[in-house]
Amino acid sequence: MEKSPIITVENLVKNYDKFEAVKGISFEVKEGEIFGLLGPNGAGKTTTLEIMETLRDKTSGKVMIGGFDLEKSPNDIKHIIGVQLQAAGYYPNLNLTELIKLFSGLYGIDVNAIDLLSKVSLVDKAKAKYKELSGGQKQRFSIATTLINKPKIIFLDEPTTGLDPQARRNLWDLILEIRSTGTTIVLTTHYMDEAEVLCDRIAFIDNGKIIDINSPDQFIDDLVASGFERKKEVKKANLEDVFIHFTGKDLRES
Ligand SMILES: Nc1ncnc2c1ncn2[C@@H]1O[C@H](COP(=O)(O)OP(=O)(O)OP(=O)(O)O)[C@@H](O)[C@H]1O
């Protein structure tokens, strides 16, 4: 059965003064899928994501999230979405447990911090401060904060940028695990291998416009069917495989 859309974006436009960053894009995100926004730097991905997250005003267009109209009911939308908080919001003197208590207080709910930290394998860092975490741990904590209000949809902006291969794979597992509980995920990434592993469907954006939307498999099959061939025979392994072969799959950050 075709899944129903949980997000509908119609003719979304965002202008920064005279500059048109998003030029009338339309797409749907289906319930329970991982939907990727891919495109070059400056394409308009973060702008689009932040409009859906209610963090940025749109210029025009219609956005419906979980049945709520962004224009009329932004507060209802805030209740059903999970947003990665900016690192600047992580008060330096509080440890991870205290930060979770603080954030859950903002939502007016009571959350078991240890349960939440265990979901992202950070129980042993419960008393550590954010600045004391490695890059991968910071990303995992940031994803944990999106889950505080048990959201239907979470938004992840470049969740694995700057991480080593083990930490990236570990985050992929975490993202797939979150999806397996029924949560819809919208993410941006510059890593095509990541998009191929994680995304059910992808929208390619360039210059503020959507070029095409499809599943990774279908995009690749269509390109091959059009006669495209890689110039060089691809080896059966790449340098990342060598890295993992030498250093194993275990996380190295604790
Ligand atoms: N607050 C702002 N004021 C003016 N222009 C902005 C603002 N935020 C973004 N832009 C511009 O809008 C365009 C789209 O930016 P956006 O951050 O959405 O792109 P992106 O696809 O997320 O890029 P990246 O991959 O580099 O993160 C860029 O040209 C950017 O310079």
UniProtKB/TrEMBL annotation:
InterPro entries: AAA+_ATPase (IPR003593), ABC_transporter-like_ATP-bd (IPR003439), ABC_transporter-like_CS (IPR017871), ABC_transporter_ATP-binding (IPR050763), P-loop_NTPase (IPR027417)
Residue ranges of every copy of the ABC transporter domain listed in the record: 7-232
Record-level GO cellular component terms: plasma membrane
PROSITE patterns attached to this UniProt entry: ABC_TRANSPORTER_1, ABC_TRANSPORTER_2
Subcellular location: Cell membrane
GO molecular function: ATP binding; ATP hydrolysis activity
Name of the featured protein: ABC transporter ATP-binding protein
Family: Belongs to the ABC transporter superfamily.
Keywords: ATP-binding, Cell membrane, Membrane, Nodulation, Nucleotide-binding, Translocase, Transport
A Pfam family this chain is assigned to: ABC_tran
